[in-house]
Amino acid sequence: MTRKPIEKGIFVFAETVNGTVTDVVFELLGKARELAAQLDVSVTAVMAGDGAFTPWKQLSAHGADYIVLVKNPALSQYLTLPCVRALAEAVRLCSPEIFLFGATPIGRDLAPRLSARLSTGLTADCTGLEIEDGSGHLLMTRPAFGGNLMATIICADHRPQMATVRPGVMVKQINEAAQDAQLTVLDVNIPDSDARVEILESASNPPARRSIREAKVLISGGRGMGSQKNFSQLERIADLLGGTIASSRAAVDIGWQTKDRQVGQTGQTVRPDVYIACGISGAIQHLAGMEESGFIVAINKDEAAPILGVADLGIIGDVMTVLPALEEALRAETVF
Ligand SMILES: Cc1cc2nc3c(=O)[nH]c(=O)nc-3n(C[C@H](O)[C@H](O)[C@H](O)COP(=O)(O)OP(=O)(O)OC[C@H]3O[C@@H](n4cnc5c(N)ncnc54)[C@H](O)[C@@H]3O)c2cc1C
Fold first, then answer.
1. Range of lowest pLDDT (79-88, 177-186, 275-284)
2. Which CATH number fits the domain that encloses residue 141?
3. Assuming Cys at both sites, which of 79, 144, 164, 227 could form a disulfide with 103, CB separation 3.0 to 4.6 Å?
4. Is residue 17 part of a domain?
5. Cβ of 163 below 6 Å from ligand 1
6. pLDDT mean over 115-143
7. Is the separation of the CB atoms in 91 and 99 below 8 Å?
8. 296 and 315 in contact (C-beta within 8 Å)?
9. In terms of Cα–Cα distance, which of 102, 157, 165, 174 is closest to 128?
10. Is there a single domain that holds both residue 74 and residue 182?
11. Taken in order 284, 290, 291, 296, is the CA torsion positive or negative?
12. How far apart are CA 86 and CA 142, in angstroms?
């Protein structure tokens, strides 16, 4: 099959951390493939680095027709200004219509600076991306006014149309038989004036608990759990189910859980096979982070709680009664 030209296509920033492409890149490539099919254009994964690592096969299998590696020794570690310069150069050469970034700490630092450098717009934290019939504009949908309504934004007059998308929102698509992406290496000049920051040392904190985005089963507690102590019940059930615990923002704000557990608009987007919401009302900002879960169980004493509207199984009752019974039943299952 003939490859569409690289120009006027869709760019996805291929962010890497410690030599590994972040998962959100594969999710964005999946979405980019869908959009590219509608626009009849190509998909390009754009990397900035010193050239030591090109995850060719992985990026091809997830949807990239091209890989543009913007290369300079100054790009061996992420620094804002050198990376902005590198990507601006790639944009100048290939004039993409659309440029997508993960809403990661790096994406959130880089994309706004790049959009300012390119004098174009940026829509942050999109939850939906579509192509408008007729105009071909990118429709960028995101929560607005505290998540109480969804706004669809277009960038009609400037290019590229830029958006960030949070990890877990889009779905990866893998095609192992995909043609190898074509690699273009672009050597850029990074002036000393861009090197305003020097990284002396970097360290990472290994997460104490399993990430809520990786677990297949999440048992999530809200204000209705009543106290921090009661979350130990959820820990025990999570262990029995091979999952981990999550929480609403209310439980984080009170101090019962740490921020890395928070599901929702200002927390993380999760898609486990099973999501068990315990004493969570189901505010729109919470639903935004979990409604794509495979099977949703809600335990709530209020039969009018909005969480029951998205639940596959609703249990109307007190968590302090339902959860011990659930734990007992699971232990009995484990024994036999
Ligand atoms: C800009 C913005 C961003 C936000 N981002 C997020 C976000 O990312 N994530 C998030 O979760 N929220 C977010 N929120 C907050 C959100 O609006 C809600 O306030 C929050 O989700 C409520 O948490 P909750 O359901 O635990 O508590 P509540 O709303 O207080 O609900 C508690 C629920 O527990 C039930 N309950 C009480 N006792 C029991 C019991 N003994 N047994 C069974 N059920 C019981 C009650 O019936 C109720 O339904 C955001 C808000 C704003 C404005």
1. 177-186
2. 3.40.50.620
3. 164
4. yes
5. no
6. 97
7. yes
8. no
9. 165
10. yes
11. negative
12. 28
Single-letter amino acid code for the residue at 209? R
Is 271 exposed, middle or buried (CB count within 10 Å of its CB: 0-12, 13-18, 19+)?
middle
The token pair at 120 is 């174009």
CA distance 41 to 207: 40
Give the tens place of pLDDT for each residue, 238-287: 999 999 999 999 999 999 999 999 999 999 999 999 999 999 999 999 99
Residue 281 C-alpha to ligand 1 middle, in angstroms? Answer: 5
**DSSP 8-class letter at 193:** G
> Nearest 5°: phi and psi at 150?
-100, 130
> Ligand 1 centre and the CA of 228: distance in Å?
15
Containing 334, the helix (H) or strand (E) segment is helix 319-335
Which of ligand 1's atoms lies nearest the C-alpha of 251?
26
- Listed in sequence order, the residues at least 6 apart from 116 whose beta carbon sits closer than 8 Å to its beta carbon are none
Choose among 31, 41, 71, 42: nearest CA to 54.
71
What is the tens place of the pLDDT at every residue in 156-165? 999 999 999 9
Domain that holds residue 321: 217-335
174 and 130 in a common domain: yes
Q: Is 248 in the pocket of ligand 1 (CB under 6 A)?
A: yes
From ligand 1's centre to the CA of 250, what distance in Å?
5
* Residue 224 belongs to domain with CATH number: 3.40.50.1220
What's the structural domain count of the chain?
A: 2
Residues 172 and 51 in one domain: yes
How far is residue 217's CA from residue 244's CA, in Å, rounded to a whole number? 7
pTM: 0.85
* 47 occurs within a structural domain: yes
Q: What atom of ligand 1 comes closest to residue 267's alpha carbon?
A: 8
Is 23 a member of any domain? yes
